[in-house]
Amino acid sequence: MIRNLLVITGVGFVLAIIGVGGAVALVGDDVKRHDWIWVASEGPMGDGSIRFERGEVDPEVTRTLAWTGGDQLSLMMPGQVVYRQGDEAGVTITGPRAMVDRVRLRDGRLSLEDYDEDEDERGYIRWSRNGIQAWSATEAVKVVVTAPSVTRFDTGADGDLSIRDYDQPRLEVTINGSGDVRARGRTESLALTLNGAGDAELDDLVVTDARVSLTGRGDVRVGPTGRADIDVSGRGDVTLTRTPSQLEQSVTGWGEVDQD
Fold first, then answer.
1. pLDDT tens digits for range 32-57
2. CB count, 10 Å around CB of 159?
3. Residue 162 maps to which CATH number?
4. Cα 206 to chain centroid, rounded
5. Torsions phi, psi for 28 (to 5 deg)
């Protein structure tokens, strides 16, 4: 909730403060010298309200994890994850110390230990000489994974996954929930399953054959040049950014299959 409401309520909150009683003139010099930071969190009664208080941002740290690699990577945590295909496997995590220290990688599964959405999705608003910025604590977590042969990816949280420099005969992506996936590279065979409200931007991926199953209200962009099998159920949209040589499609509900 914090992630969705920060920009709407947080910036309005700060603008209201600086507009009361000529506050700009009173605090302008202090803001030039020191950042003003507010912490936004769920209200004490759990009623959907947001509480603001002056606070500090956790220091940013970097941590590395040993990983021998494998053929599957599961993203079960919020944050931004980048996968790069490379010969030497490893994981680098950057972000607020309180979050970074709790990231775990077991059997190809990335997770945040003891994750509690109400507690961990606090947000921050910084007012400085450069303007007003708003972000959530989990949004600030960035994970870079390098491995040579991952071919299966799945997300089960609202994190963002970016797949870069991919070059394998096949690629399998499963999105459950509201996570977003982007991919760049090439593959002969793509299998994409999207359940929920996530987005898959795969138009920078050179694909021969693609099988897409979309349930819910997510959006998919993909550009197969060979065979395309598309199954849409719900309100989701699939956009074909290249013209496949063979197209089989089934649409149930308000969804659509379009071609650029």
1. 555 666 666 665 555 555 555 555 56
2. 24
3. 2.160.20.120
4. 22
5. -55, -45
